[in-house]
Design a protein that fits this description.
The protein has 218 residues and is an alpha/beta fold. The chain is built from 9 helices and 6 strands; from the N terminus they run E-H-H-H-H-H-E-H-E-H-E-H-E-E-H.
């Protein structure tokens, strides 16, 4: 029986991924490291420090950089990002998200947010949809990032829902792997090549509906 839906944030609720890309582009340029949108795809669904390590893997000097220096760079990236996301408004909700959140609320289905972004609560507030979420995972307290299932397990455990009664919605391959590892059904938003492990693949969030959710778990 469907009891909960757990959403990712970037690329699902809103496209704040573009702001991440802008911020990392500034950092990469300062470090003299090549970085473009194709390489940025590797950063989807992973933590800030993991993203930095991936960027450093694309350039020189990664082995000589201290953890303190990495933390300094990651903090700087986050400060740039926080300035950029101040521009977010409810108009930045992706198509189909608000109707889906409203429909889930009307049906009494619990809703959670499983984002590795420590800025997720701020973004949800800016989007004006905080009241639709019963739980927002605290990324700072999640030991292992996606593709490990920790953040999705945290969400459903906090909601008091069993994995087979819950659905996760993701747009990243690592996120889909995390949902499946948690024992949940997965809705993938994106190309079939990247979302091949999902139980249902949608071309965009505009295709989300109660019918999609209820067909997966009835």
């Amino acid at each position: 029986m469907l009891k909960a839906v757990v959403f990712d944030l970037d690329g699902v609720i809103t496209d704040s991924a573009e702001y991440h890309y802008e911020a990392w582009s500034i950092i990469a340029k300062e470090l003299g490291i090549s970085f473009d949108k194709d390489y940025n795809e590797k950063l989807k669904g992973v933590s800030r420090m993991e993203s930095l390590n991936l960027i450093l893997d694309n350039g020189p000097g990664r082995y000589s950089m201290s953890e303190d220096k990495k933390n300094e760079i990651a903090t700087k990236k986050n400060e740039i990002y926080k300035e950029l996301i101040k521009k977010i408004t409810p108009d930045d909700l992706l198509p189909g998200i608000l109707p889906s959140l409203k429909a889930l609320r009307e049906k009494g289905i619990k809703v959670a947010l499983a984002s590795v972004s420590k800025n997720a609560p701020f973004i949800i507030n800016r989007l004006g949809v905080k009241d639709y979420f019963d739980y927002i995972a605290d990324a700072a307290k999640i030991e292992r990032s996606k593709p490990f299932p920790d953040i999705f397990l945290d969400c459903i455990n906090s909601l008091g829902v069993a994995p087979n009664d819950a659905i996760g919605v993701e747009d990243a391959e690592a996120g889909i792997a995390a949902i499946k590892a948690a024992g949940m059904k997965a809705v993938g938003v994106g190309s079939s090549a990247q979302m091949h492990e999902a139980d249902v693949i949608l071309g965009s969030t505009s295709e989300l509906s109660m019918e999609v959710f209820e067909k997966l778990i009835s």
